[in-house]
Amino acid sequence: MGKMVTENADARNYVEMQSHGDVRVVVLAGEFDMDTVHELRTAMDPEAPGVTRFVLDVGGVTFVDSTALSIMLQPVLDRHVVLAGEVPPRLARLLELTGADRAFTKAASVPEAMVVDLPPRGR
After folding, report:
1. Model pLDDT for residues 35-91, shown as the tens digit of each residue
2. Is-contact 107 113, C-beta < 8 A?
3. Alpha helix (H) residue ranges in 1-121
4. How far apart are alpha carbons 118 and 8 in whole angstroms?
């Protein structure tokens, strides 16, 4: 299992990335906007070799702007992205307003998200 932890210098956000075989778990906390998405962009690389599923633990997220949401959605075109755990109300509302909630699979926890059955990818 590989692991990368980064904290933004202004301490507004936290990203932890773990590799578990073909699953990449990304733990997010704090605020994510156009000025603080570098680590998120790296973690959610839609062309990451060997990754078939991204698991996003978003329980600690307090703010996401459209730039961050776009980065979270990029892998959805070719790979599954599963939101794990309780989605904070502000993020849930943004996902609902934009229709992005339909792009993600949801699971009760990170361990469940790593093994939940996923629908086939259609192109």
Report:
1. 999 999 999 999 999 999 999 999 999 999 999 999 999 999 899 999 999 999 999
2. yes
3. 38-43, 66-73, 89-98, 110-115
4. 33
Classify residue 107 as left (phi > 0), alpha (psi -120 to 50) or beta. Answer: beta
CA distance 104 to 100: 7
Nearest residue to 14 (alpha-carbon basis) of 66, 59, 67: 59
Give the DSSP per-residue string, 57-84.
EEEEEEEE-HHHHHHHHGGGGTSEEEEE
Residues 60 and 31: their CA atoms lie apart, in Å, by: 9
Rg over CA atoms, the chain: 13
Distances (CA, A) of 84 to 3, 113, 116, 122: 18, 6, 10, 23
pTM equals 0.87
Residue type, 87: V
